[in-house]
């Protein structure tokens, strides 16, 4: 497993644009595509799905039977005074009610179970896919927005999958059965009723499109709120140091107001939509009453049939009525699904070749051969750049900020790919080998230390997840960390807090080195590993690094030149180009750029 190396959370006062893949806006996903995707997950739960479908069929049959009992009572039992059958009718209605209750309980439970399993698979698929994407994807997209897609957007689908999908399926089945039966009873009257349904569908389409757009705004505003929370909570010390609490509260209020306005817009659309559907439903009832009564008065239809027809009309209209109520959920889910699919459809830019080889244990001879590299559409950072790191030697990179030092480290670990040129390790092109086998042999110790909220032992063991407690303690000992760890009451079981907030800078850095030692990589990259430490902490770190670097290829990125004076070779970079290289003493004798940097850090003082 590669040593985790990601930049510290960036404090973004102004937020940032959301970009996926090439940054093009995703094509809106249809509701059909959403249901099709959900079905691909749901069909893995086939026994539960079959059980739910059988319950739906049984429910539809029972709902069909109850109006028939009503019709039989009015047309036969009452006129013929069949007192002995009244209890049977009452028992039949109550039995149907009990059976309907049991079947609805069973169908709801089954669909809830299916829904939770679908969400479990979908959320895991989304998270796994995000883990497979390269570093540039996370450079482009906000952490809070990605968190919102994994948590909030997936959760929005839960209600639709658990209840709304079952309601839609039940209504579709019921609508089809009732419509066929009503056509059989009186096709003319039924066709008059069905004539109102195209208007319902058109209304639903028009309002549905607008509601989905509004829900999209709602969910994007939730992502903005989540992103603001993530940034401000991780940067709470900075906010308090600059007494910016009121400023951040106002910015948070702006984001929550956007969410409030979008929700109000959705409510207004729904408030306008439902009365139109209700009017069309009442129009259908008026048709049945007027023309049904006219047929009854002409003895062409019995009163019981009219009553049953009205009951069936209600069953026929229920799907539309239900859909008008759950369209809120459906459109919200469709908007959430679009946001999820934006991530799922994003392809990684750093991909392995189809038959990539596994990199064998290496000596660590690294060669950059005429590399051209730029971040996204930015200006070229490295142009025709060549560099050689000798196996088993310590190579240092120095230079001004922005000269490309950290970029070189990123390219070795293949966090990014150069636009041109080739990088090889022991003669193997890193594009021809698997990412796992490459990164398993690289350890990175950075100034920006990434520690997870957990115990000291868990953070060290991240370097090798299968390691034993003894191996973890040995790595801590080698990293000069065992002393301070054992001084804590809970030792290796001490909780370090988010990003190691309970530890000092030197302690966090020694845990990072222990993690790298436990990984036992062949290639070590030290990126400003001691830049922000005091003199005493730096000495502890230097002792730990001496243990880590034995017999390994090491690249050191440093501004503090005192840390690289013993390097085998030092390269001086300016604007992506090597301007000088050699050993420390050689570079001082050249009196060039390295000498200037050295004089700035160690000015000569005249003593009279």
UniProtKB/TrEMBL annotation:
Keyword field: ATP-binding, Cell membrane, Hydrolase, Membrane, Nucleotide-binding, Transmembrane, Transmembrane helix, Transport
Residue numbers spanned by region Disordered: 1-22
Protein topology in the membrane: Multi-pass membrane protein
Signal peptide extent: none
Residues of the ABC transporter domain: 366-600
Pfam families xrefs: ABC_membrane, ABC_tran
Residue intervals of the ABC transmembrane type-1 domain: 50-332
Record localization: Cell membrane
Gene3D superfamilies according to UniProt: ABC transporter type 1, transmembrane domain (1.20.1560.10), P-loop containing nucleotide triphosphate hydrolases (3.40.50.300)
Keyword Membrane: yes
Protein name (record): Subfamily B ATP-binding cassette protein MsbA
């Amino acid at each position: 497993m590669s040593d985790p190396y990601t930049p510290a959370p960036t404090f973004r006062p102004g937020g940032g644009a959301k970009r996926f893949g090439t940054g093009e806006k995703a094509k809106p996903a249809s509701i059909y595509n959403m249901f099709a995707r959900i079905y691909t997950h749901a069909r893995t739960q086939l026994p539960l799905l079959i059980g739910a479908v059988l319950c739906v069929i049984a429910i539809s049959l029972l709902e069909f039977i109850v109006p028939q009992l009503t019709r039989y009572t009015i047309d036969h039992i009452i006129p013929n005074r069949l007192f002995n059958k009244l209890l049977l009718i009452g028992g039949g209605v109550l039995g149907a009610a009990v059976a309907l209750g049991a079947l609805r309980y069973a169908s709801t439970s089954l669909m809830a179970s299916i829904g939770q399993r679908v969400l479990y698979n979908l959320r895991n698929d989304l998270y796994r896919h995000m883990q497979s994407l390269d570093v540039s994807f996370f450079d482009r997209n906000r952490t809070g927005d990605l968190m919102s897609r994994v948590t909030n957007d997936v959760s929005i689908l839960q209600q639709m999958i658990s209840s709304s999908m079952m309601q839609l399926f039940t209504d579709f089945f019921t609508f089809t059965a009732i419509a066929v039966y009503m056509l059989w009873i009186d096709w003319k009257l039924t066709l008059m009723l069905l004539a109102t349904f195209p208007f319902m569908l058109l209304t639903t389409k028009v309002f549905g499109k607008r509601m989905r757009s509004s829900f999209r705004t709602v969910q994007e505003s939730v992502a903005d709120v989540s992103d603001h929370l993530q940034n401000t909570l991780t940067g709470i010390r900075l906010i308090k140091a600059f007494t910016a609490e009121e400023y951040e509260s106002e910015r948070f209020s702006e984001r929550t107001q956007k969410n409030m306005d979008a929700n109000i817009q959705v409510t207004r659309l729904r408030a306008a939509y439902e009365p139109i559907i209700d009017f069309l439903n009442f129009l259908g009832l008026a048709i049945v009453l007027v023309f049904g009564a006219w047929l009854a008065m002409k003895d062409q239809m019995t009163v019981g049939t009219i009553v049953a027809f009205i009951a069936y009309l209600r069953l026929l209209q229920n799907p539309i009525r239900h859909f008008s109520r759950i369209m809120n959920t459906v459109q919200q889910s469709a908007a959430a699904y679009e946001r999820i699919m934006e991530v799922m459809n994003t392809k990684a830019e750093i991909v392995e070749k189809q038959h990539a080889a596994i990199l064998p244990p290496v000596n660590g001879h690294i060669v950059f051969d005429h590399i051209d590299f730029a971040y996204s559409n930015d200006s070229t950072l490295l142009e025709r750049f060549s560099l050689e790191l000798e196996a088993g030697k310590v190579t240092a990179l120095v230079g001004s900020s922005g000269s490309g030092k950290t970029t070189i480290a990123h390219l070795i670990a293949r966090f990014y790919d150069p636009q041109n040129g080739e990088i090889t390790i022991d003669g193997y092109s890193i594009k021809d080998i698997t990412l796992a086998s490459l990164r398993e042999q690289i350890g990175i110790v950075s100034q920006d230390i990434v520690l997870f909220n957990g115990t000291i032992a868990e953070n060290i063991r991240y370097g090798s997840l299968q390691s034993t407690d003894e191996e973890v303690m040995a790595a801590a000992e080698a990293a000069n960390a065992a002393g301070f760890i054992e001084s804590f009451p809970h030792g290796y079981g001490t909780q370090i807090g988010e990003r190691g907030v309970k530890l000092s800078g030197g302690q966090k850095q020694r845990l990072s080195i222990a993690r790298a030692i436990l990984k036992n990589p062949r290639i070590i990259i030290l990126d400003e590993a001691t830049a922000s430490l005091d003199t005493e902490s730096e000495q502890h770190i230097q002792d730990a690094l001496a243990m880590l670097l034995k017999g390994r290829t090491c690249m050191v990125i440093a501004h503090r030149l005192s840390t690289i004076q013993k390097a085998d070779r030092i390269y001086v970079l300016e604007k992506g180009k090597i301007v000088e290289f050699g050993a420390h003493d050689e570079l001082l004798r050249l009196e060039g750029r390295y000498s200037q940097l050295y004089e700035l850090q160690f000015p000569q003082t005249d003593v009279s």
